[in-house]
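so im writing up the methods section and need the Class I SAM-dependent methyltransferase record in one place, dumping it here so i stop losing it
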Amino acid sequence: MKSVSLSSGRHLAGTPKPRMLERLARRAVRRQLQALEHGQLRLEEGDQRDTFGEPDVGPVTLTVNDPVFWSDIAFGGSIGAGEAYMAGGWDCDDLVGLVRLLLRNRHVLEGMESGGARLTAPLQRLFHRINRNSRQGARRNIAAHYDVGNDFFALWLDDTMMYSSAVFSRPDMTLGEAQIERLKLVCERLQLQPDDHLLEIGTGWGGLAIYAASEYGCRVTTTTISAEQHALATLRVAEAGLQDRITILQSDYRDLAGQYDKLVSIEMIEAIGWRQYDTYFRQCRDLLRPGGKALIQAITIAEARYEQAKHSVDFIQRYIFPGGALPSVSAMVSSVARQRHLDVVGLHDIGLHYAETLRHWRERFEAKLDAVRGLGYSETFIRMWRYYLCYCEGAFRERAISDVHLVFDKTG
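--- predicted struct ---
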């Protein structure tokens, strides 16, 4: 994983007069922060203490460790802020709270993106364009995230090894119980039967395939393009004694053939990019038998921001999921509607459950930091993952993004 981007304001600050640039950047960022209206930010830099906004919710304290922080934000926007955090340039006593504060004051967030950050935005879009999801590019993009190491994910995921939103039907549920609850819900919404042949696009580490085959007795064919996931999923299926019920492929979804009774895809559509939606849903249609049923679990972006997000790049796309893009509900439904013989029959929002899932992941990740370091991961990597988990949790809690089960049938 890269820890520094050429688009960071840190590089612009390395020009002949960094102190002057730093002063200009500090002034510009502080001017934006003065527009905070909902919530309060306490800013600490050395002996200086400043407060912005109103205390209608608990204040969040941000501590500047390196003055280049100001240039990183002024010339890098939200991506620059993430890069500065990864480099140790600032800390926060409540990182989730900071994300929520900025989302409640979106005018401030957008102001930071429209200032000096406009200078580096074309470069960020170029990086993102390079990561487009051709067959080769998709494998490279998936490997960049999922092939960082199975041992790493196993440290803080639960025993199901599900890396997607659980469903907490009771507040006292453990993470593992909530994941099983979600898997049960998926299978019920698919109306899964013992004589069904289920196709799964996006294996993960085999959790859903193992659950469906063992609990419902169906056959499962599942595919992934991650080498690490394929290896561990194959091992887990063998340990469960389900080799006769589960077939694991290492194929791009565009190369799949045959027809299946049911189809499921869990938080995979975010990886394909918005230009591929029609291709994706057309393939889902062709792979389903007439009368078949499909369920897509998808992380979605708010409708009002979808068009803007299609043509911009954020921290997640730059560092966590290269080539990724969040669909809106209407973008998916419209794409389904363009495919003959597909009818949407269900839409269920589980977004707030994802915020709780992320809280569990974040706490488990923090509890395993010594083990993460023991696997050889750097402090920059650790800070990147902490920032990513908090960034997402805050966004789900503020409903800037959500998670849905989209269910559709193939008519006869």
